[in-house]
Design goal:
Hect, E3 ligase catalytic domain fold; Rossmann fold; 3 domains; single chain; alpha/beta; 5-stranded mixed β-sheet; 3-stranded mixed β-sheet
Amino acid sequence: MGRAAYERLSQDRGKRSPSIANQRFDIEEYYQRNGWEFDESLNFSDDDISASKYSTKERPGYNALLATIRVGQIEAVVATEVTRLFRRVEDLLEVHAIVLDVQARSFVIETAPGGARYDLMTNEGFHNALDAVVEASRESGKISDRVRRAKRARAREGRWHGGNRPYGYERAKLILDAEGNITNRGRLVVVESEATIIRELTARILNGEALTKITADLNERKVPTATGNGRLWHPATIRNLFRSKRIAGIREDQGAEYPASWQAIITMEDFERVSLVLGDAARYVGAAKKGVRSYLLTGIVECGICGADGQTHVKLYPGAMWGKQRIKQRKYACKTLDHYGRQIGCGKIVRLADPVEALVSEAVLARFESEDLAALVAPDAPAELHELAAQLVEDRRRLEQANQDRYRRAGDPLRLDLRDFARIRAEIEDAMESVRRRMARLEQGQTLASIPIGRTLRAAWYAADLGWRRIVLSLVVERVKLLPGHPGSRLWPTEDDEHYEDILKQYPDGPWRFDGSRVVISWKV
């Protein structure tokens, strides 16, 4: 039976252990002194890996050594210290169990160049080795405690913990005092070009823009990431950016928060708002594997027969033949079974998605264009938002009244001349714009308030991406129930419909044989 050698190099904070080359030299010298032949095939090593219980790294060299012991190929292991092999009692007990299992007569742990020997098959040798490992484990715990205390102290001082530079910041240039000591260790300074991007992302997310659209825009503009090197942006990159309060000037450590020594890029209020938006599970319902959603009503639509929820309803179905190719059509369908074969629905509802979505869109737009905006705000919204919505409704009524008074008959005492009408309209529109700006600070009003001045909600709806439309829809719609359709000759929309051209521009496959009364919308009021 042979004798194996093991070397391990770990990286401690502030100092580096003796190199593997030095450990190998000591072991080979120990072999020569004892007249043993060094077998290269029985030499195992792990580079930059701790044996402490606080380390999560695998030790491939150590695992290979264990495999050699299991097959009974060796009877001794030589290392420069016992702690190179073990810093956890469990590791020693595992080796002891293995050598007992292979029924070895002797199994020795030897240290070079000191020559200490621990025969694990004797009671004294095993307990001596156990004492050495316990002491090493105690020392490892002390080191870990010191490291944690040092980290906590750095956090209390608001200093950066180190590592790759975070997006929006870079390491501050080191400043030395008269004695050559670094006075600004762990400080960060803002990279203004990246801070501008972070503020842009904040505004776009709060405006309801989808992360996929933002990501595509950043990559198209060739905006570099923190690592550079041509790395592309990904929705996860943006989400990760807003997971740390670092950009709000907060240093975090083990759940505790401290004022950071660097400048904040966005306010804590904006950070919390973005976190709420990105943490909303509704953003990800119905997203395809690539994260792209293509159905407006996912999570909102339900079967009108069995009541199965809308998360099971999105699917592409074979449609009509076009030449020799069958064109797939988007449909909402009640699925019978889930991926595990469990029954989740009746399977009796299958409706074309386009006419359903067009009808719901028109209903939502009509709802927002009505005078009942104050009633459309969810009951759990901030009280101020209710007041602002009511004020906006009142301003809209005043504007409509001014329009009516402007065109009263000549001689009517309530008729407004052009100058008075222009003045009153300007005052009302200024008041409405002030209300919209205030609503933009409140989360529920953010999406509506982001509509550019001069653009109607309808124009913004058809120009916006699906994510934005879902946010607007969610403000007023509770559920959309799909009832079985009845085939017939009824067409929708017709040329008599006010927004016929807008609907067909968005859904060019229309009009459809479609009965809108079979789609029931439950409003939030």
